[in-house]
Amino acid sequence: MAITSDSSHSTNSKNSKAASRPLHHKQQQQNARVSFGTVVIREHRLCLGNNPACSSGPPTAIEWKPQRSLKLSVDEYESHTSSIERRSRDELVMPRRVREEMLRRRGYSRREIFTVTQENARLQQERMKSMEKYARRKKVEDRVQGALSIFRRSNSVNSGSRIS
Predict the structure, then answer these.
(1) So what's the pLDDT on residue 96?
(2) For 39, phi and psi rounded to 5 degrees?
(3) HEC profile for the chain?
(4) Phi-psi category of 19—alpha, beta or left, where left has phi over 0 and alpha has psi -120 to 50?
(5) Residue 3, beta-bridge partner list
């Protein structure tokens, strides 16, 4: 489910002559208003995804084309959602088994789910190797920079103590 909003931009003007004249930037900021007219809620179907950040099981995504949408005024939306308590981060995480069940109900075979899960694990391993390689390279670069810094300091001290 995705939530978007249509917005409109308006400016306050005393008369049409003033509105046609260019305003100073600060004046424009003071007169500019943003208002939100509607909220559009779109429902999308679940599909197999390819997000390597998924820690276990098959990653999921949503299909591009929405299944249905609902358009509400901001006030209507707020009146419906004001009594609903926001979910915690842990409640937003969908367990592996739930994702697998949902994908199976959507018609994906066990083989397709397994293949995507294995590919995801392979991508995670590649990411880990890449991060470890970067960390080693960074450590070497830091040591070289430290040595250069010491060399420059000692070189500037030695060159400053020369007698001309």
Answers:
(1) 93
(2) -120, 130
(3) CEEEEEEEEEECCCCHHHHHCCCCHHHHHHHEEEEEEEEEEEEEEEEECCCCCCCCCCCEEEEEEEEEEEEEEHHHHHHHHCCCCCCCHHHHCCCHHHHHHHHHHCCCCHHHHHHHHHHHHHHHHHHHHHHHHHHHHHHHHHHHHHHHHHHHHHHHHHHHCCCC
(4) alpha
(5) 41
* pLDDT per position as a tens digit, 91-125: 888 999 999 999 999 999 999 999 999 999 999 89
Tokens read off for 6: 């249509």
| Residues in a beta bridge with 33 | 10
Which token pair is 30? 């003071």
Residue 74 sits at the vertex; the CA angle it makes with 73 and 76, to the nearest 5 degrees, is 65
Distance between CA atoms of 21 and 79, rounded to whole angstroms?
A: 41
